[in-house]
Amino acid sequence: MFAWLRNVYQSWIDYPKQPGDLLSERYRIFSLLGMGSYGLTYLCRDEHSGQEVAVKLPRPSKRAKAAQLLRREGDIMCRMDHPCIPKLLERVEHPNGMFLVMEYISGRTLEELIFEEERTFTERECIVYMLELMERVLHVHDRGYMHRDIRIPNVIHREGKPYLIDFGLALAVGERQEDIFAEAMLDKRAPERQDVAVYSDLYDVGHLMLFMLYSSYEPQPDQPPGSWQEELELSPPVRRVLERLFQLRPRYEHGRQFVLELEEALLQLKDQP
Ligand SMILES: Nc1ncnc2c1ncn2[C@@H]1O[C@H](COP(=O)(O)OP(=O)(O)OP(=O)(O)O)[C@@H](O)[C@H]1O
């Protein structure tokens, strides 16, 4: 009974703001983009510049913890400087709470592209796309952070380019996983993904690649389900990079090792008739 009441209460106080509402006398809400575990993100218009922006507010039901996580996220976003990673435009602090104002990336997520638009990727297209995405991932690593949430809903496809969003789980290399994360989400992670290390981000990159490669997979009638190695017809170099990403072979200790092997795999595919 208590859990039920608590859920009703949380849904009531987290009820999204309405289109037309004005935040901090500046950001006019258009629509709700999504409700995450600790924040609500809205598409807004900045009344000063006329620009579209994404505004992320803490969920009222998560109070201080959500504000703390958002502040962290803002601190990390400030340290990024890449045209395909949204810029933090402002961090608004006021007595009723705080929120983040980010560059809005219009487009569709890779998840929507694959599952709603049924977009398919060949092996070659997947490699070319991954090389672009890895450029953003290497930027994050070079700045001393691990993203830790590289997944298809966190990649926005705009004008043929992948944009990497959502730094809510990112940590600095060597930083300890804080209790706040452990309670919120980390305990659900596979052991291969728990370390704050390059190979954990690359493990996620491996999954993302599998989603892209499975987009053109068509099971034969009566075919029993198998592993990705059994189901996907992959060229040996692509299979090998995936096995390294999944730590079935010696893992990559640096993202650039993976990029080099991916480039090599692309060259070999080009040589094929
Ligand atoms: N800068 C941005 N530009 C465009 N869309 C964005 C931007 N940031 C977030 N979004 C979109 O807003 C929605 C909510 O994102 P948000 O990061 O708040 O939560 P989430 O990813 O759904 O959940 P969680 O934070 O629990 O992982 C998602 O659909 C995401 O694609």
The structural class is alpha+beta
Mean pLDDT across all residues, rounded? 89
| Top CATH class of the largest domain | Mainly Alpha
Attached small molecules: adenosine-5'-triphosphate
DSSP strand (E) fraction?
A: 15-25%
The total strand number stands at: 11
User: Which sheet architecture does the biggest sheet show?
Assistant: 6 strands, antiparallel
List the main descriptive attributes of the protein structure presented here.
globular; Transferase(Phosphotransferase), domain 1; binds adenosine-5'-triphosphate; 273 residues; Serine/threonine protein kinase; three-stranded antiparallel sheet; Tyr_kinase_cat_dom; 9 helices; Phosphorylase Kinase, domain 1; transferase; alpha+beta; ATP-binding; kinase
Question: In terms of topology, how is this protein built?
Answer:
Elements: H1 2-13, E1 22-23, E2 27-35, E3 39-46, E4 52-58, H2 63-78, E5 88-94, E6 97-103, E7 108-109, H3 110-115, H4 123-142, E8 145-146, E9 155-158, E10 161-164, E11 171-172, H5 179-184, H6 198-214, H7 228-231, H8 236-245, H9 255-271
Antiparallel strand pairs: 1-2, 2-3, 3-4, 4-6, 5-6, 7-9, 8-11, 9-10
Helix pairs in contact: 4-6, 4-9, 8-9
Bound molecules: adenosine-5'-triphosphate (ATP).
Residues 33-34, 36-37, 39, 41, 54, 56, 86, 102-105, 109, 165-166, 168 line the site of adenosine-5'-triphosphate (ATP).
Describe this structure in words.
The protein contains nine helices and eleven strands. It folds into two domains: 14-103, 2-Layer Sandwich (Phosphorylase Kinase, domain 1); 108-271, Transferase(Phosphotransferase) domain 1 (Transferase(Phosphotransferase), domain 1), CATH 1.10.510. Strands 1-2-3-4-6-5 form a six-stranded antiparallel sheet, with helices on one face. Helix 4 runs antiparallel to helix 6 (198-214), helix 4 packs antiparallel against helix 9 (255-271) and helix 8 packs antiparallel against helix 9. It has 273 residues and is an alpha+beta fold. Bound molecules: adenosine-5'-triphosphate (ATP). Adenosine-5'-triphosphate is lined by residues 33-34, 36-37, 39, 41, 54, 56, 86, 102-105, 109, 165-166, 168.
